Each structure stands twice: as structure tokens, then as C-alpha cells.
Amino acid sequence: MAQGSPKASNESLDTVDAKPAKRFFVEMLTRDIELQDAILDLLDNCLDGALRLIGKKTQSTETPYKGYFANINFSKNHFSILDNCGGIDEALAKQYAFRLGRPDRERDKDLATVGVYGIGMKRAIFKIGKKTKITSCQPNQAFRVKVTPEWLLDDDDWRLPFSKIKTDTLEKPGTLIEIEDLYPSISKSFEETFYDDFCKVLIEQYSFIIQKGFKVTVNGTVIEPKKIGLLIDKEAITKQSSSGIAPYIYETNANGVEVSLTVGFYRDLPSNEEQDDEIEGRHSKDDAGWTIVCNDRVIVANDKTALTGWGNNGVPSYHSQFVAISGLVIIKSKDAALLPVTTTKRGIDVNSEIYWSLRERMIEGLKIFTSYTNKWKTPSPERAKLQQNSRAVLPQDVTTLIPSNQWKTVRTGMGGRQFIPSLPTPQLSNPSKQIKFSRPLEEIQKVSFYFFEDKDAKPTDVGEACFEEVLKKAKKL
Description:
alpha+beta
């Protein structure tokens, strides 16, 4: 017998209490999630419900979510979210939906959902308040479950009260979650600035879903989608010998994951005034940077950091010169566990092999357009003409415009194919150069009034007028 091992005759079997404390679960689940992300989890559940009803229709129509909605309402004393997305099955509710975790990883394995861990709804209601009522109606069954402040404090009782109700309790099959006894910090947020910020997040992160027919309202206001198109010179693309503005595209479908990556210009290159405003701290509202979408949900929006390749591997760090560059990555999979998504479903998993493989393509695309911008950063008639010949097309529709013989096979990483645009270079033999200098505002205003009888003319106009005045004298020498 090994030294220190107890003798069998001296052992006695007993147990210790290893039962979890609810307070631990509540604090652990809610500590690192923002309020708006918790509510977005509830909205994701609505969308997953609609997706279960739609099934394979998502592959055959541009508006598969048409007719489905989620109505979000909140005040300092109350929060609710109502949907018509089919409700929760009674058996599922009793065995799975209200457990803290996901015991059945096979559920929804053939649907493009984003839920993996089974904590979204519970985490959201724990985050917002102490008293919750969940009402679910289906055509042939309906129920109500309540979470009370007393239940949250009782470590011995892990079962929730379940009651059957009339199937017409809600106007349409769906789910209603109502939360009261809000935590003071949540109540204060709802009362102050949360509405405006939350609506902006919805516009930013749910535009793809809304464009596909899903309707979201917040306190009665309908959220309208934001549509970003990438510039493309259709005529130049069809002629292999010609060059024109067009995006870089990469596509692949490997190991259960389908990817479409597009980057290009969503607007004209910035004017001198815009770059000056950025330098002076007057930031322009822009949609530049990378947006990453997983199963129709935006998990990264307009990112301009090293996360998406900026400032790495030969790509310059983002600044105002690149305000026209926008990229979109759409990732789809029927197995949500394959998506490079964090547990909050609002961030990229940087440990994912898929992420690193796609980041290489993102960097490849960025290099093309930052290089182009460097060559054309000075406004000119030639640059303006190129921009006039281009039209905006939704990134997800650009692929159909590329002739089949202009695609190249990709044999590294995730494989697939790519389209590398042939962007034009300046042809002027006497190119323009920028002249930049700073002078005190009072002096600029005096010169402005001298030339324009208006002391508030744009500094660039004042500088140009000064140059033209001196140039006339120089030409006479």
C-alpha cells in the first residue's frame, strides 16, 4: 500500500454539499455583459424562433423574415419584449429552455442560429430585474413561467412555477417577456440616454435582418435599416483590358462554413476639407472599416483597428484618408459552434482558426485600397471622373456582376476563389501636390475678408486664393 493511503477498513462514505448558489450564477452570468447586449440576446431568441418556422426558406427568398416582428418597450419601471415567432414548445420549456446552460447540443443543428451555450434569455432577465413573467403561446398549447425575487434567493429551489394558460392569451403564436422590479442602475439607464444609444445599435447591428423582412420596434418606433453600397464601374469590370473602381471579393464554402468577403469604396475619396476636419478633431460620421456578420447578426461593426487588419502586415493604421474604405464579411453555418463568435455573440473570437484565415484575406483587400488612396489622395478632375463612372451596389449583390473568367482559385487557408480588381493609377504628367500649413485663426479671417469680404470662408479656399494671387505675379516675372 502506498505511503499516506488510507486503509480501507478506516474509510467511511459521506457527502459534502456541492450545490451551487444562485447568486453566483446571477453575478457570473451578468457581470461582463452590457445591458444593450443582454436585450439583443432576447432579440436573437426571437429571430431563432422565426428561423425555426421558416426552415429552408432562407435559401430561396430575399425577405424570409417578412411578417415576423419583435416589439421592445421599456421605462424606468418596466421592460418587455413581444414577438410572433412561434412561441416555446411546452416540452422544451420544461426540459431545456429555462435551464442554466444547453444540455442538448444537437438542437437546431440544421438551422443557422447563433446560440451555442443556452444562457442568453436567463442572463438577460437576471441582468434587468428581479421579477419576470414569460408567456408563450402556440396554436395548441400555451404556458406561463415566473421568476420571483424569492426564487432568486432560494438556493434549494431550482424549479420554476409553470402554469398552463389559454392559447389566445397573445394575439399570435409567440413569446412575451415582462420584467419588473428593475435594478436601480437599469431603471436609471432606461430613464436617461439608453433609448437613443440602443436604437443606434439596432440600426448598426440588425440592418441585415431588417432588410430581410424582420420588423423591430422600440417604444413604438420602427427601426429602419441602414444600407451601405460599394462603388463599382460595371462597364470597366466587363472589359479585362480596362481598369475601374471595383471591390475585392473572396468567397469560400469549406468545413461547414460559408464565407463571402467584400471590401472597396462605399463613397468618394475624402475632400481636403474632410481631412482637415478629422485632423482638427471634428470627426465625420462614416461607415468606414470592417463589418462582420455571422448568420445574419452583426458581431463587429465598422471596425478600424488591428482586430480587422488595420496597422498590421503592411496595412497602415486607419486615419481620415481612408474614410471611403468599407469591408463586409458574411459568415454562415448551420452549426453555430463553428462560428468565430464570443459568448456574448457581439464580438469575434480571436482564437478561431476561421478568424485568422479570413483576416489574411481582409489584409490583402485593405492593401489594395489603401494603396489606391495613397496614389489618388489629392483631388483632381481625373479622380472625380473615375468616381462619377462608379455606382453603388450592395456588397452581397456585387458577386453577380463579376464575369466568371475573372475569378482566381485560392489554394491556401480555407481555399475558395477571389476577384482582385485592376484599379486605375494616375496618368497625369504634371500631377497635383498638396500644400499644407497652419496660421492663427485671426490672421486667416483677415485674409478671408480681404479676398471674399467674408471672414468665415473655408481655410482651404483662403489658401487657394493666396496661391492664385501669388502665382499670377510669379508668371509675370
